Amino acid sequence: MEREKNFRYLPEVNAPQPADPPPPVVGDSPCPCCGCLTIPNGGDAIAYICPVCLWEIDPFLTGEEEPSDQNHGLTLREARDNVRRCGAVLERLRPYARPPEAGEREAGPTLFP
Ligand SMILES: [Zn+2]
């Protein structure tokens, strides 16, 4: 009785999964760091993380030399240097990054050959 009163809003642990999985996120704008076409919603994607370089969209940045709180204090220029060197904004994040897919290179110049 007490448990039901305190936990009635929690979801069931084994709740059924939705029949249709959510649609995949499709990038339509270039990442400000690596240039790959990975950012959805016309670039209006606050806190979205580029799956290629792992830069997090920071709408408060005013320039390439301003440290980004959302990106470990890195500036955009430092993050680009790291991506060129190791493939991700920080070397320790490299295992979580992935190479750009074919359609993601169409935006123009990217940091990837
Ligand atoms: Zn990126």
Kindly describe this structure.
- This protein is mainly α and 113 residues long.
- It has one domain.
- It has a two-stranded antiparallel sheet.
- It starts with a helix and ends in a 27-residue tail after the last helix.
- The mean pLDDT is 89.
- The protein binds zinc ion.
- Zinc ion binds next to loops.
Give a concise summary.
This protein is mainly α and 113 residues long. It has helices at 2-7, 76-86; strands spanning 29-30, 37-39.
Keywords:
mainly alpha, 2 helices, 15% helix, binds zinc ion
- Low-confidence sequence ranges: none
Order of strands side by side in the largest beta sheet? 1-2
Radius of gyration: 19 Å
From N to C, what is the helix and strand string?
HEEH
End-to-end distance, in Å? 62 Å
> How much of the polypeptide forms β-strand, as a percent range?
under 5%
Counting H and I runs of at least 4 residues, what is the number of helices? 2
Biggest sheet record: 2 strands, antiparallel
Shape: elongated
Topology diagram in text:
Elements: H1 2-7, E1 29-30, E2 37-39, H2 76-86
Antiparallel strand pairs: 1-2
